[in-house]
Amino acid sequence: MSISQLPRPFQHYGQRYAFVVVAVIFLSLLVSAGLRSTPSVLLIPLEENFGWTRATTSLSAAVGIFLYGLVGPFAAAAMERFGVRRVLVAALSLMAISTGLSSFMTEPWHLLLSWGVFSGIGSGAVAVVLGATVVNRWFASRRGLMMGLLTASTATGTLLFLPGLAALASSGDWRRAVWAVTAATAALVPLAWWLVRDRPASVGLTPYGSAPDTPLAAPAPRTGLLAATFGALNRAIRTRTFWYLFATFFVCGFTTNGLVGTHLIALCGDHGIPEVRAAGLLAVMGIFDLIGTTASGWLTDRYDPRKLLFVYYGLRGLALMYLPYSDFSFYSLSIFAIFFGLDWIATVPPTLRLTTEAFGERDAPIVFGWIVAGHQVGAASAAWMAGYIRDTQGSYLVAFVLAGATGIIAAILALMIRRSGRAPEPIPLAAT
Fold first, then answer.
1. Residues in CB range of 231: below 8 A, 6 or more apart
2. Does the global pTM surpass 0.90?
């Protein structure tokens, strides 16, 4: 293929077309994250409309979060075999269909299938692993910065969608929130098919930041989907680095998506704070997450990622321990939202860099997919655990203190990771 395979308005972009691809992936991750956040604003409306318990609604959220992570490594292998564009379009279509059908649900198992199983599978292919695959293929420099930006979109989407979704869900008809997510997801399908290309070499380009005379990368030999997915896992699990990264990312999911992302609105409700106002706190976190995670990517290009993880997890743990003992005033919640937002998912760029250094560029997206699966297992565990503790004890206090303790443990584990001899690719002077 040649550059003429690009859409006509972009044929003169050359290497800069990488930013067009990143822009579409950014929007896709943003909407996918918004979809994954929707169950948190549906918890109370579904309880009021159908009489379902908090444990029942939390279970569907937990299943969706778990599959969101489990699908990651398989999605990375599928992108290698079938192409990024096909996998992305198929996943967005499944997300739109499953969420749209949920507007007709009347039984708990309908909720479990739509928001748990099918949306979990679809959104799992439009997640951090997608960003890692695109960054590794399309960029030879500024990888940390681009990964930070794409990672920020996943958390920012979760948080920025919430005020509007909460307003729609609490307006008297929870289906309005479902329809909004369905429309946003469906709108991305034609955009992804038109603009996304699988890799630079498929359109006669080299990755952004590479030298002009760099030869086009030869396509990797195709292997079976399961062979590629489990082969990379088999090689990774023999190293301590994998298990340390898996454990720290488990804690990342446990403390963010699972606990705060799913239960902060309900926690605020226990203290008399309305849903829309509580969702506004998450939106503030989303804004500061965009700043914090993008900055984390910039820092990852320049500093030891293990030390960055130590700081991120340690501060996160302390913040979670502080929250249930605060007075839940406007000022204390604002401080928490800003602080926690900056740290929300800043852990991704340094974790991806450590993964790429340890396992190489070919295996890294799939191995990172397995590490992200650990993130979502942690998130699913917290989503269910916090709901169970709230039902049995009438308070979220123990859940937040336990989550804070896991953050401290993860900070210590981060310093135990050994860096391999692989050095990250240097940033060309022309690209800085």
1. 223
2. no
